[in-house]
Specification:
- There is one protein chain.
- This protein has 3 helices and 10 strands, in the order βββββββαβββαα.
- By secondary structure, the protein is α+β, with helices and mostly antiparallel strands.
- It folds into 2 domains: 35 residues, no CATH class; 133 residues, Nucleoside Triphosphate Pyrophosphohydrolase, CATH 3.90.79.10.
- The termini are far apart.
């Protein structure tokens, strides 16, 4: 299969504050198909290492999941914003910690079957407390866990979002 795709038609079904839902008619290797995708500006996820064996998470309510989740801090890129600037901003806003060192580890698609959202994962080290400043509509509670506890929470299904699982497993690999 080649990746020669021809766009035949694109319709915007919904335009929200952050995302757009589009329906496209495509032709791939002579076969016509219709796909609906969520167009997203991209996001960052931060792996904050409080010390050599402790990570900073946030607990927040997620409407799509219908409950509060324990996650690594993350946030959506604003127009023209560099991922590292977004990571620094989100870490401080959501957790109250500022990193002296921030290193990009990897980029991945959050859910490529229906969304264009691409996430950049950063390792944050040399943390110092400066005080949290969440957005007015953001209710987050910072939680510090040992890497061992975080791994157990993944196994128990208590940490269950993909970006956090990826980050914790990568931290385990980096620290092994």
């Amino acid at each position: 299969m080649s990746d020669r795709v021809r766009l035949i038609r694109r319709v915007t079904l919904h335009r929200g504050a952050i995302i757009r839902l589009i329906r496209e008619t495509l032709e791939l290797d002579g076969c016509r198909m219709v796909r609906e995708t969520v167009q997203h500006p991209g996001a960052v996820v931060i792996l904050p290492m409080r010390d050599a064996s402790h990570l900073v998470f946030v607990r927040q309510y997620r409407r799509a999941a219908g409950r509060s989740l324990l996650e690594l801090p993350a946030g959506t890129l604003t127009a023209g914003e560099r991922p590292i600037a977004c990571a620094r901003r989100e870490l401080e806003e959501e957790t109250g910690w500022r990193a002296r060192r921030m290193r990009r580890l990897l980029r991945f698609y959050a859910a490529p079957g229906f969304s264009s959202e691409r996430m950049t994962l950063f390792l944050a080290q040399g943390l110092r407390w400066v005080g949290a400043r969440p957005d007015p509509d953001e209710f987050v509670q910072p939680v510090v866990l040992s890497l061992k506890t975080a791994l157990a929470k993944i196994a128990a299904g208590e940490i269950c979002d993909a970006k956090s699982i990826i980050g914790v497993l990568l931290a385990h690999r980096l620290l092994a």
